[in-house]
């Protein structure tokens, strides 16, 4: 990478995704699993999937970027002498937990005791993050850090494949909002990468499972029956669950559930358990505190790893500030401290099964992947709910990236004579998308777990007599109160012909294409009219930018209920 | 396949009377790469006011039936053949297994990820129809309703099938099981939570501290 700029910005347009379908597919897209703590790259080599190794023969690459002088370097090329090196303040990691979040987000607040600087002013804007370079806090953004890392991944892939790489399939957490997805796309664009698909992590695993099942059914006679599988994925940052129905190489995603909960939360819980006043100790973020924190973090992480394979562990660490921790920790204590995390995992599994409407006895396989799948408690939670042993054919650390590379080959239109690419994922929407109406309610137009591509519409009407304008405020989520969901954008419909309230019909239609691009259409139809009253609006979402924390509040303050809508109640005729 | 046209079916779960129609503003429909929105419409040359309107009707709504009138004759001519069973290519006595298999086979053919690049638009529309047929026929309640209407020759209306189940009986079994789980989890966490501060509580405390 040397002295040339570490990355270049290809596009700063919110509509960069517009290229999606028109982008010429020259090369087979590679798969990237961009994890909170580890990344990997895989590709279809013409006959099978292959993971790319770096110069030190590693397949799993640590996700971090170290800022030194003017040249940042990431975990792809950079060798760490020791784990502590990552904890000096000069290195930014956990980007995936920070990207696309506002400074009012609890996950951002929980990141404040990381060695680098995370500042939040609680005003609904992007948090300020900075790395310690030559004793100065140098500011950066999660997107920039991700882009630097992606440039390294791209360079690694290009050297290995001996061709330029532009098209990628990236795995993402189920719980990411469309705004967060747009930030990931932005980071990719900054790194000169074109996102062919963003795939929720468990759906990538589901595709790999579909391929395995197809191979099995081809070998055996008969077969071809539908198989239901539950996929549980938990890494450092996120927990995702999916239920898939698989037959004939087609993986139909029946339901998705996810939350921002992962190994990082377990680690934070344990550190707080060992040093209860940790937040106060490290709040000043001085050089000494950062060093102390590093020692604590490494010792705790080490203990957690050991507890996956042994019943108890001895923690012995001198934090150097007069505090010594000398303690024997056993699994029971560990599980008690992280009770909330495990309960959340449990509820995600139940919710996903419920939403998929798959009965437990109809579940054929249970697949566990991700770093946290090694934790005995996690394994016992999932197996005791599903009453099944864990499916043996998945490498927990490689399944997602392999699935992404498979999708890369399939979506690039590659065929394989053996039929091993005769595959398809029918994706589903992880979150509902709708608008604010009926007061402050969230009225979904596209419901959660709807198969995509899809088109759905709902009819609304005015709340005031002679109301001439209406605000369409689009949210994504599953909370009943609109504002509790993720704001995606807003626009105004004008020119509603004067009429008593409840008469004009406002159509709101949402279209999601196979590339997961969301378009919102809205227009006015007057009763008895042959044609709509004026042109329809078409808006690509999300349209919001970084400072959208208080947008909804500002709209409320400026407009009150003057431009509100209610759902149109129709008389049902038998 | 019985349907030779490519239709944009727009269905809604919350809309009690499912509608099917496609609207695309004429201005932006030209240079759009999106296969779904760039549908080319075989009927109804561009109407005034910059809107292409086509194929769609609702039943039972007294007003706003602009889409109905725009399309009635067209729909009827096709609808005679295009019942959901024909669409999936299965007999009316088809089993759930046959429905699932037919759906997956047709998805392999028409899903935009795997359809031939020059026919993505047309195939996407077909996929949306196959998806709708599958969703209704794979649900025993909605299928029964559909079968009943089809016997009366009313099935073109596509009433209610889309949202039939949402708040009704078929969820109740799951719902009660789910609620039992949740209350059990709550009970357990109350019981065990006395000693350690919860993750959520700490989040709240941190947030309070940082904002003060």
UniProtKB/TrEMBL annotation, chain A:
GO MF annotations in UniProt: ATP binding; ATP-dependent protein folding chaperone
Top-level taxon in the UniProt lineage: Eukaryota
Keyword Oxidoreductase: no
Tagged with keyword ATP-binding: yes
Segments forming a coiled coil: none
Pfam families assigned: HSP70
Keywords attached to this entry: ATP-binding, Nucleotide-binding
Annotated family: Belongs to the heat shock protein 70 family.
Protein name: OLC1v1020070C1
Protein source organism: Oldenlandia corymbosa var. corymbosa
TrEMBL record, chain B:
Pfam families the UniProt entry points to: DnaJ
GO CC terms in record: chloroplast
Chain residue ranges for the region called Disordered: 185-212
Annotated ranges, domain J: 83-150
Entry-linked CDD domains: DnaJ
InterPro entries: DnaJ_C/III_chloroplastic, DnaJ_domain, J_dom_sf
Protein name listed in UniProt: OLC1v1018987C1
Species lineage: Eukaryota, Viridiplantae, Streptophyta, Embryophyta, Tracheophyta
